[in-house]
């Protein structure tokens, strides 16, 4: 009887220990699940809890240093207190920094074009601000005056000063924004040479371009082109390809007839039938995953397209008057001027344009 009782007691203890172990495991999983749910919930609240938790780790490490100073063989209590005070400030700053990093990462995931703002260094950003606000010509002044001195403007002939301004524009240091704009112009020029009519949608609409830098049309075909002028060590990732596909879909929806809008399940075939194609053109390379995405989504890819020299002067013939007018790349109507008529062309030099009978816009003829 005693032996049986002892056996039952041992079995009970074993089962009880097993249940306690399972209960602890469940409690651990419940705690982890609660933490995970809290992280996911905090994501929509700008991550303050997670940022605070990481900041607490920073504070803890800082306090370890303070404890060492306070309790070492020859204590430095004053220094330890200073370290603790500094630690409190570091905790606040760490929480703010991590909070902002999470918010930025979230926004960049939703809007991939924002990653472009990480490309420039501080000096380049300052250069862009200077170009935008510091050295602009007055609203009623000739834009050439930005690139030549007052003395040069008054002493040189119209041809010479316009040419000098163009050369300084082309050779001058440019911000990432300016390089990106020139890259769009260059790629657009390449398509125009292939007979496409190009709309410089990105330059005209700024950050509201929805990823459509160029809209190129020829023989009923439309190319939605996104241009990325990035340094050679950077890779284009799939989120940028996805953005281009999305804006191609949006372009189709905006241009589709109502009866076609009711057949969206046939979208891939409809997109092909309407000859609308997304093209990703970049100075660098795509990642392997991005290339796979591009193939799956029917996006054409043009890699390693470097920014090259090209004739920038647009020689345009007025439809209304037949006048021959040339536009320099910093002139107001440059990007909106399309060269789609016989006799229109890109000139390398001001003299080349003038020899063919083109003049600069009346406003700036001097």
UniProtKB/TrEMBL annotation:
Q: Name one Pfam family in it.
A: Mrr_cat
What protein name is recorded for this chain?
Restriction endonuclease type IV Mrr domain-containing protein
Which domain of life does this protein belong to? Bacteria
Q: Which Gene3D superfamilies match?
A: 3.40.1350.10
Q: Where is the Restriction endonuclease type IV Mrr domain?
A: 180-296
């Amino acid at each position: 009887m005693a032996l049986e009782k002892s056996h039952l007691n041992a079995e009970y203890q074993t089962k009880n220990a097993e249940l306690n172990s399972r209960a602890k495991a469940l409690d651990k999983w419940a705690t982890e699940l609660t933490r995970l749910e809290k992280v996911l919930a905090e994501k929509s609240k700008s991550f303050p809890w997670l940022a605070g938790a990481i900041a607490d780790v920073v504070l803890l490490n800082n306090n370890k240093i303070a404890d060492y100073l306070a309790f070492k063989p020859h204590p430095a209590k004053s220094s330890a207190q200073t370290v603790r005070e500094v630690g409190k400030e570091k905790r606040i700053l760490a929480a703010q920094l991590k909070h902002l990093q999470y918010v930025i990462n979230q926004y960049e995931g939703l809007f991939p074009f924002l990653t472009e703002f990480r490309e420039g260094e501080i000096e380049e950003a300052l250069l862009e601000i200077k170009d935008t606000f510091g050295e602009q010509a007055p609203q009623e002044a000739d834009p050439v005056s930005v690139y030549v001195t007052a003395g040069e403007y008054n002493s040189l002939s119209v041809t010479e000063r316009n040419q000098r301004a163009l050369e300084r524009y082309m050779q001058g240091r440019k911000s990432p924004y300016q390089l990106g704009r020139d890259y769009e112009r260059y790629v657009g020029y390449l398509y125009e040479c292939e007979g496409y009519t190009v709309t410089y949608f990105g330059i005209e609409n700024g950050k509201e371009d929805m990823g459509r830098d160029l809209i190129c049309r020829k023989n009923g075909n439309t190319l939605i082109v996104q241009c990325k002028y990035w340094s050679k060590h950077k890779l284009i990732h799939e989120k940028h390809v996805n953005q281009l596909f999305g804006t191609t879909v949006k372009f189709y929806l905006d241009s589709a007839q109502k009866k076609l809008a009711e057949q969206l399940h046939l979208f891939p075939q409809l997109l092909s039938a309407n000859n609308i194609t997304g093209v990703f053109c970049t100075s660098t390379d795509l990642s392997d995953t991005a290339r796979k995405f591009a193939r799956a989504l029917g996006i054409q890819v043009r890699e390693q397209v470097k920014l090259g020299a090209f004739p920038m002067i647009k020689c345009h013939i007025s439809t209304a008057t037949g006048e021959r007018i040339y536009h320099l790349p910093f002139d107001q109507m440059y990007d909106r001027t399309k060269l789609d008529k016989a006799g229109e062309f890109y000139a390398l030099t001001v003299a080349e344009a003038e020899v063919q009978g083109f003049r600069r816009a009346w406003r700036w003829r001097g």
